[in-house]
Amino acid sequence: MNGLTDLSGMRVFERVVSLGSLTAAAADLGMSLGAVSKRLANFEQRVGTQLIHRSTRKLSVSDEGIVLYQHIRRILQEVESAEESLRNQKTQLSGALRITAPNSFGQRKLLPTLSEFCRQYPHIRLELVFSDEVKDLIEDGIDVAIRYGELPDSRLVARKLLTNKRILCASPEYLAQFGHPETLQDLTRHRCIVMGYHSETEWRFVHGKVHISGYIVCNDGEASHRLARQGLGIVMKSYWDVAEDLQQGRLVQVLPKLALVDAPISLVYLRSQDLAPRVKVLVEFLVAEMAKMDQRATGSF
């Protein structure tokens, strides 16, 4: 019996029994009489038994039809209740949103922005996952992720948030001890702090690149920032992440005339035709707010 997977057939059957005729059911459903008769016959065929006895004078429901009618009424009531709940959610946005972001960005940029979002949408619950590891949106149940650089996964939609200018910097104490590098090749002789899990990496500039063997390897952006401030080496950081330290003299830009390749910060989510309304409003909110932030940052760089 696979008729109970035929929701349209169940609705036709329920209306015919409740209203007592095919004609009345057709009018109620906005269908032609022929379409209702055919849909009912198909439903009976899928169920595997005759549910309604037809004659020229009246319809009568079979014993099997009476039993099935009671169950179908309950099923359709549950479906209607579920549909009503979805309509209410769209009117008053609610539910949970799981967001992941790199640790530094989450702490410094996302949290202040989300406070305003929470005021505007008080019934949406936020679950924040701050980590410098790239999370799998499907496996980790992530609704929205904020990521650096290129996004090769075609399952994802990417919306640009920030341009993300990057610079090299070190503490005044480090530079006093080891000197200022003047060329890309000079970097190979310096102590460099590398983000990730491998000591060998490549720092790419607009006009060249250099192979780096990390003196310290660190998988956390905040920790690498702190290591640089403690005088342990040269680090590559986003300008917005170290701007205050540069202004206060705790860090100094290294090779300021050589521009690094940008690594745009993007907001990504799974490609879907039926994106939940709460995800849509978050995406549009963050894109708008970060665009304002990007204009201010670009103007001050």
TrEMBL record:
Molecular function terms, GO-annotated: DNA binding; DNA-binding transcription factor activity
Keyword rRNA processing among UniProt keywords: no
Database matches in PROSITE patterns: HTH_LYSR (PS50931)
Record's keyword terms, sorted: Coiled coil, DNA-binding, Transcription, Transcription regulation
InterPro entries from the UniProt entry: LysR-type_TF_proteobact-type, LysR_HTH_N, LysR_subst-bd, WH-like_DNA-bd_sf, WH_DNA-bd_sf
Domain spans labelled HTH lysR-type: 5-62
Coiled-coil stretches: 69-96
Database matches in CDD domains: PBP2_CrgA_like (cd08422)
Family: Belongs to the LysR transcriptional regulatory family.
PANTHER family: HTH-TYPE TRANSCRIPTIONAL ACTIVATOR TTDR-RELATED (PTHR30537:SF5), HTH-TYPE TRANSCRIPTIONAL REGULATOR (PTHR30537)
Name recorded for this polypeptide: DNA-binding transcriptional regulator, LysR family
